[in-house]
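Section 3.1: Structural characterization of target chains.
Under the original work plan, the team committed to producing a structural model for every single-chain target entering the pipeline before any wet-lab resources were allocated. The record below documents one such target. The sequence was received from the expression subgroup and is listed exactly as submitted; it comprises 440 residues.
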Amino acid sequence: MNSFGDAWELICSYCKNKITDVAYNTWISRIKPLELDFDKNTAYLLVPTDFHRQTINRCYIPLLNEAFEAIFDNKFQIDIKIPEEVEQQLPIAREPEEEKNSNYEYTFDTFIVGSSNNFAHAACMAVATNPSNAYNPLFLYGNSGLGKTHLLFAIQNEIKKNYPDKVICYIKIDDFINELVESLKMKTMIEFRQKYRQVDVLLVDDVQFLGGKEGMQEEFFHTFNALYDAHKQIVLTSDRPPKEIKTLADRLRSRFEQDLIADIQPPDIETRIAIIKRKAELLDLELSNDVCEFIASKLKSNIRQLEGTVKKLKARYLLNHERITISSVQEVIADILNNDVPPQVTVERIIDEVARTFGFSSDEIRSTKSKSQGINKARQIAIYISRQMTSLSQADIGAEFGGRHYSTVIYSIDKTIERINTDQKVKELIDDIIKNIRDR
């Protein structure tokens, strides 16, 4: 069991809550853990290029130090390597993502079934056993951290095992959108469409983020139809049922609803205890029944938190090798409960989400030079949401949008309120954007 790899997931989660999605995806997500040397008190990390290393050293070392101390309760030196430096020196401790997704963590055998998820589990098993002939499409929904992604990978791995020749594609809808935007820029739409319309199984995570993105919905609609008409399997996940994604096109909503919809609810206490015990077993960590029950009584609505607690306990155990008791676990639980408070919404997050929704860049939303009608509308909505979701003054909001005068902020808010009052679609679009900002 690779304990550093598991601890690294917690470190990444910590960092993700502290910086923007763009910064995280560009710099932190591409780091791989190599080795944690307790004798030298050094963490060795791998990045793809020397430029990447220079950027991490210049901009993100304080954040990484903070994350390591939060997870391990101990300070480490961070030594960043590039591939040519480690080929003959350090064994890479973490599997490539593709291999990791096929290991014990993402199979039906390791998915703990209880009353809250047995229907969704059975539906996924049916799809994996008989793709395209059981439920197509299969639509799973439930709050974050309840196992939807685990089930998608379990389907992928089961189909790979039983039908090795089938082409399977798993993708988050944000990545689909980003690839689409890049393909439009690079004029490679033929290749993009071939990639997604010639698979045998398409597994798509977080389709709620399609809401409001009309151009993206159009492309996804045609991809969906091409696969469905060819009798290919489609499985989708969301944090809400299709009818509650208000800015989803009616024709796409009807496609999502045309076969089986299965929900996943928070697990009951017996299921939570079973999840904790299974994760501890996989990490080769001994936890008493009292400790398992204590954790399950405190963390009630998120499987990812349960597993993260066990991983963090393992990281602490690596440092002191002391038996884990209820007293020693209380600090870890307190950290997780404190981290469960939603991060403060920033104008930067709002601008990023509005930009994604309307298909512009964040710089275009902020710019004082971009004056097209579409960008102006998007900017006014971003300003309105900033006023709704932050405590910033109108002058401070104006400063975030390229130094605009507070009178421009007032006008933007009034204009957006007018649109909300006269156009139900605008109201639904803004509601979806706000929900997406809170859920990210």
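Residues 88-104 have pLDDT under 50 and may be disordered.
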